[in-house]
Specification:
There is one protein chain. The longest helix has 13 residues. A six-stranded antiparallel beta sheet has the order 4-3-6-1-2-5, with helices on one face. It has a five-stranded parallel beta sheet with strand order 9-8-7-10-11, with helices on both faces. Strands 13-12-18-14-16 form a five-stranded mixed beta sheet. The chain has three domains: 90 residues, Translation factors (Elongation Factor Tu (Ef-tu), domain 3, Beta Barrel), CATH 2.40.30; 109 residues, Nucleotide-binding domain of ferredoxin-NADP reductase (FNR) module (Rossmann fold, 3-Layer(aba) Sandwich), CATH 3.40.50; 84 residues, Roll (Ubiquitin-like (UB roll)), CATH 3.10.20. The two termini are 30 Å apart. It is an alpha/beta fold. The chain is built from eight helices and 18 strands. The protein binds FE2/S2 (inorganic) cluster. FE2/S2 (inorganic) cluster (FES) binds next to loops. The site of FE2/S2 (inorganic) cluster has 13 residues, from loops.
């Protein structure tokens, strides 16, 4: 089936095991056409059978225009996405892909980039490291894995010498001491973390204890840490200015659910507040932002809202829909 016009239809040109539980894939245009550019740390959405949409960081050099490379970890509790990529998406298969999106990227003003990766969370840093090497930017990496065999791209990364440190939990009897690694922060340093929730929490905690400025610590999430609807959530009303509709959002449903139930087609992808595809302009009211993509400034500005997870602090929100 051809990809919808707003998606790219690419072919799996190559694939290979990269480490224990990690598959590497190379996607190309079937006719050899150049692909839309991307920035270091950007990701794409893969549109998989059964309506699954999964996000994966692009891990090749962003100067390359002829291919997108991905690293996909096999999630033990996979809802189908990583399992499909590992066992069904073979070389030669066609796959619909969204255009690259830059939700996570290098801070232009940083004097040094300090990357902390957990497991498959290494992938966005691979394109960032390519960029740093190409442009002579200062960087270092702490790469945390449960065991050495699970560390994809290990040889290439360790080839950078003292810049890249591998921490295998089973060799050290436990997780890395994040506070110790982060200590020694210099003015102008920026810290970036991608990995499982406990690692992100440890980095956030250490950054707080070391008094790092919030804007200098960056996180990339690929799974929302909690339920999107919480106990105690209340119903509220949304007014859709362009459609002229007024809808009730029940306590146990999202704005996106309500809008779709009313027959209004609106883009969405992750449905967890991670991808920004369901963002709409907020015309009136105050949103309770529960996404992971808006900056503190964007939250405070109350100009847009993610329909899939956010709720209302006021009785009513007016949306540009
Ligand atoms: S669908 Fe991804 S943020 Fe809402």
């Amino acid at each position: 089936m051809p990809a919808p016009p707003d998606l790219l239809e690419l072919v799996v040109a190559a694939r290979a095991p990269q480490a224990e539980g990690v598959a590497w894939l190379e996607l190309r245009d079937p006719r050899g056409a150049p692909l839309p550019p991307f920035t270091p740390g950007a990701h794409i959405d893969l549109y998989l059978p059964g309506g699954l949409v999964r996000q994966y960081s692009l891990c090749n050099d962003s100067e390359e225009r002829d291919r997108y490379c991905l690293g996909v970890g096999l999630a033990p509790d996979s809802r189908g996405g990583s399992r499909y990529v590992h066992f069904a998406l073979q070389s030669g298969a066609r796959v619909a892909v969204g255009y690259p999106r830059a939700r996570f990227g290098l801070a232009p003003a940083a004097g040094r980039h300090r990357f902390i990766a957990g497991g498959i969370g290494i992938t966005p840093f691979l394109s960032m490291i390519h960029w740093c090497e190409r442009h002579g930017a200062d960087w270092e990496l702490l790469y945390c894995v449960r065991s050495r065999g699970r560390a994809g791209w290990r040889e290439a990364l360790l080839g950078h010498g003292a810049r890249a440190r591998l921490h295998a939990d089973d060799e050290h009897g436990g997780p890395a001491d994040i506070l110790a690694w982060l200590d020694g922060q210099r003015p102008g340093d920026h810290v970036y973390c991608c990995g499982p929730g406990p690692l992100m929490d440890a980095v956030a905690d250490a950054a707080g204890r070391l008094g790092m400025a919030r804007g200098s610590v960056h996180f990339e999430r690929f799974a929302a840490p909690g339920e999107t609807v919480r106990q105690g959530d209340r119903a509220f009303t949304i007014s859709l200015r362009r459609s002229g509709l007024e809808l009730q959002v029940p306590a146990d449903a999202s704005m996106l659910d309500a809008v779709e139930a009313a027959g209004i087609a609106t883009p969405s992808s992750c449905r967890e507040g991670l991808c920004r595809s369901c963002e709409v302009t907020l015309l009136a009211g105050i949103a309770d932002h529960r996404d992971y993509v808006l900056s503190d400034e964007e939250r405070a500005a109350q100009r847009s809202v993610m329909l899939c997870v956010s709720r209302a602090c006021t009785e009513r929100l007016e949306l540009d829909l």
